[in-house]
Specification:
alpha+beta; single chain
Length: 97
């Protein structure tokens, strides 16, 4: 398990999810699969009470960092993750063709 910390945000990477904690309370998650050096982001969710804090972007950032570290390309099946990756020039190089 890998943990990434940002001020009040903690992201724990598990076998098929990144779990997001805000001030030690679970605030959301991202589901993913890895197959043949492709990281597929399936679903990203931040719970309503934690909305508006940019936490979904932190989940996408954690997935991108995980992909870079492991030389994976990304397929963003999740519309939210795709939107964030498409809008962030430094993430676009990781998109699978």
């Amino acid at each position: 398990m890998i943990s990434q910390h940002y001020d009040m945000v903690n992201i724990e990477q598990n076998d098929k999810t990144f779990d997001l904690f805000y001030d030690a309370e679970k605030a959301g998650f991202m589901e993913y699969n890895v197959k043949e050096n492709i990281l597929e982001i399936i679903h990203t969710e931040v719970f309503k009470e934690f909305g508006g804090k940019g936490l979904g972007q932190e989940l996408v950032k954690a997935a991108v960092e995980f992909a870079r570290k492991n030389d994976y390309k990304i397929v963003a099946s999740c519309p939210y993750a795709k939107k964030i990756i498409d809008a962030t020039p430094e993430f676009k190089d990781l998109l699978a063709k």
